[in-house]
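User: For my dataset I need records formatted as: sequence, then structure tokens, nothing else. Please produce one.
Assistant:
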Amino acid sequence: MRFARLGPLGQEIPTVVVDGTYYDLRPLTSDVTGAFLADDPVAKTADALQRDQLPPVPDADELRVGAPIARPGAVICIGMNYAAHAAESGSAPPELPVMFLKAPNTVVGPADEVVIPRGSTKTDWEVELGIVIGRTASYLDSPADAAAHIAGYVTANDVSERDFQLAVSGGQWSKGKCAPGFTPTGPWLVTGDDVEPGGLRLRSFVNGEVRQDSTTADMIFSAEYIVWHLSQYLTLDPGDLVLTGTPEGVALSGRFPYLADGDVVEVEVEGLGRGRQTFRSWKEQTDVR
């Protein structure tokens, strides 16, 4: 099942997508929130569809596509989870998952413009498989328990400012990860019953040229292992977003230029849809303080 949110920022309509038609979920929920995802959303949505309780959204194709989840309580990220990406970053593959955080206000729609931060010279792209939590996960006994706590999966772009992340970070990565709009997500949340996360193709493009092309089979730590591992150190709540790392092919490698005003980045994960973001220079924004 595919959930999506359509409409202006802050006024998105929660929907379910069936054969290309968007059906309004508001008879069931005000939004695609953690509470909705924790309360058997697939069965309840299927029942409402069967009863014709969910009307089609008029002119859905003309509406902005928002992030498929309402603002999460936490965005938790795993770094260097593909050996080749660790190598291009100048690091050995980690023996344990490397965790960092992003601010929830980085989560935006898959086609929203992204503003390059003021003073940035090293804004970078990272296509990633995102996990959306569906049940509270704390001290899970094993990775095999993780699937029951996953609501579904999304395509995400973990946008990064490498100078902020590495040179002026003070030893922590999040400073280069938290600019507004730095986590374009979607277009859909595809529920876990429809996704096998262990063998999905991931690709990114800049101005139409391929940059990354890999599969989640190359992840060092699987999606289930990541959820289990994180649960030993923090509580994952319904609606939280977990990013699982990116493959090789980013600008940090030195093989490609960093992003500049007008560049277009496309990211896609097999079965989860494609995002397309235009990057704009901060100096050209009139509404940024």
